[in-house]
Amino acid sequence: MPVPSLCDDDRDALLSAHPLWRLRGDGKAIERTLKFADFNAAFGFMTRVALHADKVDHHPEWCNVYNRVEITLTTHDAGGLSARDAQMAAFIDAAAIAGGAG
Ligand SMILES: C[C@H](O)[C@H](O)[C@H]1CNC2=NC(N)=NC(=O)C2=N1
Description:
The protein is an alpha+beta fold.
């Protein structure tokens, strides 16, 4: 099902509200790298995000190496960024703080 993509102003607002995220070169995604104390903390964070992602049917692209988690958010159904990515970035930022991410 198609999802509306963000206009330029809404994309800029997303980046201002979530300064730890950077716009990917093609403008169609945002990225953040998080570092945790150890693998246990990183995987605990990923588990919380995964359960939430499945509940809201919006799934991150990510990579984990020990205590590092690299996350890309984009909306495939929009061909770029949508409000769903803003909502997911907010959830991830809160979960990152709770998980002690640096
Ligand atoms: C059918 C299902 O609702 C869709 O494919 C959902 C699943 N998860 C998704 N995740 C992301 N990141 N983008 C999507 O467009 C998307 N669409």
